[in-house]
Structure formats: structure tokens, C-alpha cells
Amino acid sequence: MRTPLQQLLDDPSGQAWALLWRQGENEPVAAAGEPPREGAEPQVEVLLGEVRDVEQLADLPPAEQDRPVLAMVPFRQVAERGYDAHDDGTPLRVLVASRYQRLPVADLLAALPQDRVEVTDETFSVSDEDYAAIVARVIEEEIGEGEGANFVIRRDVRARTETAPARAALSWLRRLLTDERGAYWTFAVHTPGHTLVGATPERHVSVRDGRVRMNPISGTFRHPADRAELEPSFRRFIADTKETEELFMVVDEEMKMMAQICTDGGRITGPLLKQMAHLTHTEYLLDGRSDADPRDVLRATMFAPTVTGSPMENACTVIARHEREGRGYYAGVLAMLERDADGEEHLDAPILIRTAHLDHAGAVTVSAGATLVRHSDPVSEVAETTAKASGMLAALGLRPRREVRDVPTLADLPGVAEALAARNESLSPFWLSPQEVRPDPDLVGRSVLVVDAEDAWTRMLAHQVRHFGMQARVVRWDRVTDHDLGGAHLLLLGPGPGDPADEDDPRMARLRALALARLRTGAPMVAVCLSHQVVAGLAGLPLAKLSRPHQGVQLPVDLFGRAARIGFYNTFVARPGEAVLPEGPAGQPVPLQLSVDPAHDAVVAMRAPGLATVQGHAESVLSRDGLVALHALIRHATGHGDPSGDARVNEG
């Protein structure tokens, strides 16, 4: 009887199939993403089966033992979360394996065709000049107006081939397996009308044995052609503030997801290096426990901030505004569902980047995006999209091939491990350490209503207040009822994007109404970032736009006599002045005490009886002193005073 691989190669165009090399199935590998260590025998998986298209992730069929299910999840599926996306009709496609085989990679390489696949008519969907102009607009009109911290805008390399898609994919897969390094998955998937082949460096999410893992990658070092320039330019990359902050921002965004789906909120380890043939990235590993169904985990994490931006909901809106067409499968995921001998279903889902898409007519598309932050340089971001596409384009024969041996293992250079480890010295120990619940007896059992203002920071805030022994519930701003408001011991108004002074924004109007209603009762309230600005506006303080946004920066501040290093994600600030809320309990005005950052002439915190606010994000990975600061704010608002010297709750 023919093996699945033999059956595939006999008629690659006439059936649906997948060939997968997965890092997780080929352990052990080096931490920095190196090829398998000596003694390991790399394996590849062969799937043959039937294709079906489904509407929702919940419709993904169950896997059976030795009969995995492979889903091709397009970017437009993010609409399941209520987020914006161009509907380009790309299907949520499922390959249900009827035959499955594992074999050594060497055997596959010996069997794969080595055809020369001619690729012609290469062009960019957006020119260098036009892409640079888009970058400038996003920085000025989106980040500069408080719409978010970072956004990923993509452009496509488009070409054509006369070779049948299945045959072309097999040849390109062979080249990727021999030429690329550091991939999380190297794969080819062929279905009617849609064929994918690629080497993606990034795990999006995996679920196995009750553990969820995510693997945010950001910061891109482009290997120079001049070997003599490699080490000095790499050391400049490691020390580059923009590259470091870019990684921290995506870690923060994925930690929001981890806080939603993991009972312990998740913790981070790293940073590590992900070295490929043409590029090297920095990455963290996020890990937490969850009993959720893999489909629910996949839905809650659509899609990675490394390919969208943050905050996620607004990032999707910005993408739809600045990209002309749908993304197809770019920035979506491949999702492998498997069932073990104990009947447990597992998930392994890499992000669809560094991937070529072929349609039935021979059109070839390779997409790449750059992460745009407040100090992005448009010319440099143009170069980054070109570099990110280079590995796949080399496999297509459109760029020079690069010998892996020409580039040393960068993680082994003297001082690199120490420089990477030093990044964590400024981060929150809460997210770097095992998170035991350390209840505050004065707060245990108290209910907290966390109002989501369209930014999932609220999930991290909810996890932190549970750390104090409180009971937190997150409700979206437009779904908060009078019963919700009156039934919570503490109201925690959360952060979000946008201009706090915008009179026409219904979200801002609702936040003002919620704050005023709470203030009239005198019941405890804490407000964070955007909501801090809203309360400041109610108190008569002028609101202003910063000349340079504080998106993803750590600042030293004085919070009412307590020194703290806190992460900031804001474009707007409240300026110092006389701050009096017009109406408190019994209709009396309420004067506010202010904490001011003199370096930026900004109000960073406010308080009054029953009220505490903060401009920064105590919940951020960037907030080294965040947990202690949040604890102090909550204790003040709830009338329990300053926790100075209280060792019950601390960062470690």
C-alpha cells in the first residue's frame, strides 16, 4: 500500500494535502530558534484528507487520534470578535485528515521535486513612496491622535507563475527546508483554489495539557550583506530603544489576551532571539494555565498584535482604514487540532507570515507589514517590509539565496545574553514571577466592576485586583447598567483609545456619565488613563495633546509621595490647575489633590475621598512598580489609607 507521501506525490494537484515541519514536534531545539541539536532527528508530517469550509471557529470539527484537523484561518475571521475587517471572501477552510504520516525530513527532501519554478511580473501592491506616505499618515493621524500605541500596515509582493500551484509549493517547500532557519513552522498546504507555502517564525498560540503559550516576536534586525558589518550593527540593534519598546508593546497586548483566557493571568520569560536566514527577531514566551476549549482560546486571541497593533479593536479599524483590500490569509493562522491517547485535544497555531499564497490562476502573493510606532521612520519601515518578504522571495527565486553558514549564531556573541536579560530589570516583577494570590484582608471579597472602554487592559487590571482577593467583573462601556453600577463596591473605569474631550464620541459621553453618577453616590471609584482624563475634564482641568505621544514608554513619577516607575500609553494629558469636581455626595463640590509630572507638565494622578485616578498603566508589563501603585490607589479609594510598610501585597 502506498504511503501518504507517495499518494501525495503521485498526484499533488488532484487532492488536498499538507506537509508540516513543526518546531514543537522536533524538540529539542535551541532557545534562540536554532536548528535541532545533535542527536535529534527532524520529522515532517503528511496530511491527506477532505476539505470543508465552515463559518465560525466553533464549527471546527473535532480531531481524532492520528487524524488531526488543520484549519486555514483568514484575517477576516476577526469579525467574529466584532472587529472591523475587509470581507474579501477568503474561506475558513478545514483539512480533515483521513491519512497521516510522520517521516524524517531527510526522506522528504529526497522525494520532493527540484523543479525550477519560473515566477514573473513581480510588483509591489503599494510603491515605496506610497507606503512611506501611509506610514507618515498613521503616525500623525492615528498614533498622534490617541488612537493607539502601534499599528501594523502591510503591503504585498505580487507575481505570477505558470506552474501548477501544488507543484510549485512542493518545490518552494524544499528550498525553505534547506535554506531557512529558525522557523516555528515550515509548511505547504494545498487545497482547491488556495495553496499556502511558508516558513513562519512565530507561534501565535498553543494549548497542550492545560497550558496556553503565546510567543510574541517583534524588533527586526536585517542581516547586512557585508559580513564585517554584522556584529557592530547587531549590537546597535540590541541597544536600540525603538526595537526594545516595540517588543514590550506587543508583549503587553498579548498579556491582555493571556489575562482573559488564563486563570493565573500568564507570566513572561525571555527575551530570546529568533534567528532566521535573512533576519533576526527578539521574542518573549508567555505561559499560563487554562481549561478553555482550544477553539475558544483561538477565538479570544484573534489576532496577534505583532501583525495588527494595539489596542486590538482599534488596530483592526485602523487597518481597514489604511489598507485598500482584505488580507486574505496574511496575519491569520494555521491551526492544528490534535487528540492524544488520553482523549485531550491540543492546539498548535502559527501566524501566517513569511508565506506565499497561490490561487488557481497562478497569482502569487507574499505579504509583509511593519510595526509603526510613535518614532517610526517611514524610509526604514519601507525597508523592513522588503526585508521581511526576502526569505520567501528567495525561495521563489526572486531574491538571492543566503547560505545559513554565512551568519554566525548571534545569541552566542559575547555580552548578548546579558544585554537581553538586562531588559527585564525595568519590567514588572508581577508578570515575570509566579503569581500567588496575596489577599489584602481589607479588600477580600469586595466586588469590582471594571468598565472596558475598548481596550483589553481591563483584563490585566481585573487579574491584578483578584490578586488582592477582590472579585472582578469586566463589562463593556455600552453595556453597563444601573444595577451593575450600584451593585459594585468599587468602580474601576478603564483605559481606551481616543480624544477624551471629543463631545461627539458616545463612548466619552458614557464614561463621563458613569463617573458623574458614581461621584454623586460617594462610592469608591478608580479611573485609569483615558478615564483619568475624563475625570480631570469633569474637574475643570484643561486637556491637551502631547507633542510626542507617550505610547509604550516607562516614566518615573511621584504618586503622592511614592516614587514609581510606570508604563504610559497616552497621547492626551490633563494640565495642572485648580481641580474641583462640580458635584459629589449631597451635591457638594469636591476638590482634588493632584500629583504632577513637572517634566511634562502633566497630571499623573488625582485623589479625593472615595476617588483615585492614574494616567499611567499600573497593569502594564512596563510598570515596574505597578502592582504596589494600584494597591495604594484602591486602598485610598476604599477608605483604607496608605499601605506603606504593608508587606501583604508586593510585586514579587
Please provide a written account of the structure.
The termini are far apart. A hairpin with a 2-residue loop joins β23 (543-559) and β24 (562-574). Residues 27-39 and 645-652 have low confidence and may be disordered. The longest helix has 21 residues, at 241-261. The strands form 4 sheets. The chain has an 18-stranded antiparallel sheet that branches. Strands 20-19-21-22-29-28-27 form a 7-stranded mixed sheet, with helices on both faces. A two-stranded antiparallel ribbon has the order 23-24. Helices cover 27% and strands 31% of the residues. The protein has 652 residues and is an alpha+beta fold. The chain has 2 domains: 4-219 and 284-403, 4-Layer Sandwich (Anthranilate synthase); 428-637, Class I glutamine amidotransferase (GATase) domain (Rossmann fold, 3-Layer(aba) Sandwich), CATH 3.40.50.880.
